[in-house]
Protein 1
Amino acid sequence: MSRISIHKLRECKDSGKRFAMLTAYDYPTARLVEQAGVPVILVGDSLGATVLGYESTVPVTMEEMLHHTRAVVRATKKSIVVADMPFLSYQANDDIAIENAGQFLKAGATAVKLEGGRPVVSLVHRMVEAGIPVMGHLGLTPQSVNQFGGHKVQGRTPAAAARILNDAQALEDAGVFALVLETVPEQLASMVTSRLSVPTIGIGAGVSCDAQVQVLHDILGIYDDSRILHHSKRYVNLGESIRGAIRAYADEVVEGSFPTSEHAFSMDEDVLHELTQASGSIVE
Ligand code: KIV
């Protein structure tokens, strides 16, 4: 079974068919996401917070991203796997950036995603020329959270909105096959979506984007089930279910009701008899 082609996403946009992208960072969850029919899996650097316990995406390394990308690739056969390029793996030097992107493709990813507008346009062009499919990412780009001074909506002033519109066009011209728009006003996302030929994938950017992306741990309520983010929707509170199940297991162990004979293995009566007879003469 071969993977869905990135060109299929453009066909979706052309025929007005929305699609979902979702993050996954490990083998079991990537399998579930693919089994649920999600065509694009993002190994997001959001794993810094959701899986590794960092405060932001900034500390995430190439090694960590590659490790998780390989697990997601092993778990899937059909879905497009997009690997996020971590902070400083592409900003300092274009040659190193292309080598790093190549490592993700060698690990089995279909494409890479990188954040930013003008400053990465020529790099995107070079990557695409080198045969590396690139997804763009504009708006609230989490690797620049320190620069933005927090998780704030981007593109609210005429100048900031115009910059996002221009950057989006420049990224499309450089060859991105899709563009994530994060935490921007829905009217702006709608304008970008109607101007671009490649699909826009929104998160906190309204319904008029061609597709949506969410962080798996947010929609399942695993990461921090005491908090629902404005741009997110929790479809199940797995955090509560998992805690309940673990508590029940631990309680049963303490009170001796698990395991029962149903979960144990027994020995043949003859062997047991022989063992009991001989036990006196067994020297350890
Ligand atoms: O890292 C991530 O999960 C992302 C999405 C939020 C788009 O970049």
Protein 2
Amino acid sequence: MPQPFYITTPIYYVNAKPHLGHAYTTICADVINRYHRMVTDETFFLTGTDEHGDKIMRAAKKENTTPRAYVDKISALFRELWPQMNISNDYFIRTTDPAHGNVVQMILQRIYDQGDIYFSEYEGKYCFGCERFYADRELVDGKCPDHQTAPETIKESNYFFKMGQYQQWLIDHIRQHPDMIRPERYRNEVLAFLREPLDDLCISRPKSRIKWGITLPFDKDYVTYVWFDALLNYVSALGYPEDARFDKFWPVVQHIVAKDILKPHGIYWPIMLKAAGLPVYRHLNVHGYWNVAQSKMSKSLGNVVEPLQLKNVYGLDAFRFFLMREMVFGLDANFNEEALVQRINSDLANDLGNLFSRVITMAHKYFKGVVPQSDPAIEAELSLGMPERIGRAIETYTQEMAGFAFHKALSAVWELINQMNKIIDVTAPWELAKAKSSLPQLQAVIYNLLEGLRVISGLIYPIMPDTAATMQKHLGYAPDQPFFKIETIKTWKHLAPGTQLPKSTTLFPRVEMPKAAAPSETAPGAIVPKIELKPEITLEDFARVDLRVATVLKVEPIARAQRLLKLEIDLGEPEARSLVAGIAEHYTPDELIGKQVIVVANLKPAKLMGVLSKGMLLAASSDSSDSSDGSQKQTVALTVDRPMPPGSPIK
Ligand code: MSP
């Protein structure tokens, strides 16, 4: 039975063109929406524009145009941008839609009738940039903290929404629903706000000052204030009150916002819903800020990154991948082009792109591009472990995606990619191809790798839909037949032997950093090594690895695995251990016997080509798995520079 799923982005102000921040939130919503479609939920994805208020009126005036013409123009920029970024929204709401206005009036009237709205004179410090009054304690050096301008003192009569009376109810509700606001730091922030008494919320503006709003149903001389108008878009977009979509999707609604609008979404909105007699949202998912060159990215600071520009330079999928992989949902992140280029070259071109082209190229070279049969008995003999590896990757991936931890979901996929690249190195299909007798092994290895690629193409779909489709096409699926359902992705051996594969393609070419944005100057002629480090780890992470000195007792080749040697090592334990090492091309057995080597002693045992390996020998390698430059790879075993008792720990 499909479960309903409803996801929203903030509706963006039309006083600025779309920028990276808007793109990030909307891509997050798109990724989560595609993921839920993948797990067969019936989804509804909403985005749109927030078009009323002072700010918009002033922006229109600046452009010498009417508010109507102005909002039409900027709203269209957002609406036209999203399809170019593969955003799969079901609806695009505008607060100037008449149907939205009707819902706002209906709810305001309901809350007014029950006595939660009152009329009063108010004098206060008003920031025109924020469109709100500020209490003295909120100002920094007497200025608005966001705009760094002194607010103006204005006095007017207005309508107020009584929030204080719902304060205890909201505290209790948040406590009873621990994952209502997530990640937890933002839940704590909201609870901290709620330790202070809540001020009542001013919800109106006199028409004498602003006409560009929704008229209050109980006073024609006033329009409603920005949040009462804006937040209700999430309800009106579902066709409330009569449309069945409201009954289906409202009970499961989840919002995504950045931390800048935590207070309206974490406090005003649940209280408004409570007062209106509507259920509170299920989750508020709050992310951090993208900072450009260490400063908050915003149009007033003039350092806005054009998302479309970068997408055109580096490709849409690479751009989407970078945003999802680089930011830990909930924390701030720094945006810079260098990091983007680095991720493209290491994660996309090197890891995924290389794996894809190696496997498809080998399928063409050894099997004329026809998917080979794979014998389960041979798979068992080779102990490739693909179903288990895939099972583990899918389990972590689904868990992390559901919790908005996109970077962790992607790490799980990349672990599988790296394992598959290792399988190629260890099984060396080019060696298997040399003898007729190892044809069944070659078939099994290539088939298992193709199946792994199929699974990867499914898992990356929410983040990189175009790349997923390209991969599936090259795995022989017809364009009308791509599978993006988790049950199909999980189906082991879905790829039919005998399928003809189209010729290979490059998924992600390596890219160069543009000159002007290069990180630092280097002396002319200097050789700059291209080193791509793995992500930083802590001392505790490292301490989990048990490195020991071992003495090599015995060495044997392994049948059909020309790169591998079976070692027996003395680790100071009562019995010798067996260990498989991929160094047969670099050492003869005689060279190794008696040598003291360094091993990872607490690595989970695994079978390689049917031989149990309990640990891993450490070796230095002059090159990564990518030997496209034709250079000869050097591999040397690590050793100690004076004899040590076997089992000595390395600290
Ligand atoms: N119109 C209101 C929201 C009303 S929702 C009922 C508004 N609009 S906005 O155009 O200012 O958009 C704010 C949102 O844009 C943030 O919450 C976030 O989703 C996104 N971002 C804007 N700048 C951002 C960054 N620098 N980094 C990440 N996201 C940011 O507030």
